[in-house]
Design goal:
Elements (H helix, E strand, L loop, with lengths): L2 H9 L10 H5 L5 H22 L10 H8 L1 H11 L3 H19 L11
């Protein structure tokens, strides 16, 4: 398994932490899922966020560049240090895994109260 596969598994909570969701921990610095989604919405990506929360639509994709613009270089650099990866790979992993993670965390179309 490659380093990016390990990162992807960690982002999806498949690591050795007994089900702890590393993505949730990684996004804690921006207020969890809700904080990250708010930042994406403020960056003009509200349609993407709504598709991830929707119960009857496909998840629209987001690009690494959009993730980087929304979250900012400083926050992504902190995550890159935490993962031990280059900045662009962290943004790419978030772009790849965040839509599905939000979709799975919001089966009824909204995030649970502790993440809202």
């Amino acid at each position: 398994m490659g380093l990016l596969d390990s990162l992807g598994d960690a982002l999806q909570g498949k690591g050795q932490g007994g089900g702890s969701n590393f993505l949730t921990e990684a996004l804690a610095s921006v207020g969890g899922f809700s904080g990250a989604l708010a930042m994406l919405q403020q960056s003009g990506l509200g349609d993407r966020v709504e598709s991830w929360l929707s119960t009857n639509a496909s998840n629209l994709p987001v690009t690494p560049g959009e993730i980087q613009a929304a979250l900012g270089n400083e926050r992504l650099q902190q995550l890159a240090s935490q993962f031990g990866l280059p900045l662009d790979q962290v943004a790419g992993a978030l772009a790849q895994h965040l839509p599905a993670a939000v979709d799975q965390a919001s089966p009824d179309g909204a995030l649970p109260a502790q993440d809202a």
